[in-house]
Amino acid sequence: MRTALLLSVMVLLQAASGQDRSYFPAATKPGEDGVSKLEAKWFGTSLQRMNEPHLAPLAVEPDAEVYRILILPTWGNSIAVRVQKHGAIYRLTARRLSGHAGYDPGRLAESRDVELTAADSRTLDVLVQDLAFFQIATDDDVRGSDGDEWVLEGVSKGKYHVVDRWCATEYDPDKRKLRPFLALVKFLLDKSTLSQRPSDKGRRLM
Hints:
Layout: H1 3-8, H2 10-15, H3 37-49, E1 65-73, E2 79-86, E3 89-97, E4 108-115, H4 118-131, E5 148-156, E6 159-166, H5 179-192, E7 199-200, E8 203-204
Antiparallel strand pairs: 1-2, 1-5, 2-3, 3-4, 5-6, 7-8
């Protein structure tokens, strides 16, 4: 586990322990779809402060198609970008918090809502198809003691899945076969119109 970073948010998570049900399924054994219980609480704290919806329950709706990237830099703002398909068009929602994701993520600092064009919606469909999201393992076992977490959720055709990658842009993205993952995230960030990109200690991550 990313021990040092996860321990650094323990106090914050204890304070948030009374929040609503978890945003993420917790894996109980290796290879199971889901994140650890501690990660589920940590990731969910930022989403709760953004007033973001839970995605996993949407899997009961066979026509639901929604994806969300959550970026958590230790020393930078939590950022989430969510897209949901309505007919052939995606609607995008972006949120940014004011604090440091590895400690106190702060409060909602920026909010954007955008309807993608038909052309951008088709581009997004291609990026999702190229990623083969539902065939990717939740965790690639690449670990570190600090850095940034990239958590991508998706619901499509009655299925929910989550993918968690540590330092996706900084640590061997080619060797880890993360280029399709990063292409999708870059597109979402570009279309979000947020005033700030993900950064850690002032260093831009993408």
